[in-house]
Amino acid sequence: MNTQDVQMVRVYLAERGGQLEALLDFLHDEAGIRGWTVYRGISGYGSSGRVRTASLVDLSLDLPVTVEFFDTPPRVEAILERLVAFAGDGHVVSWPARAASR
Question: The whole model's pTM is what?
Answer without folding.
Answer: 0.84
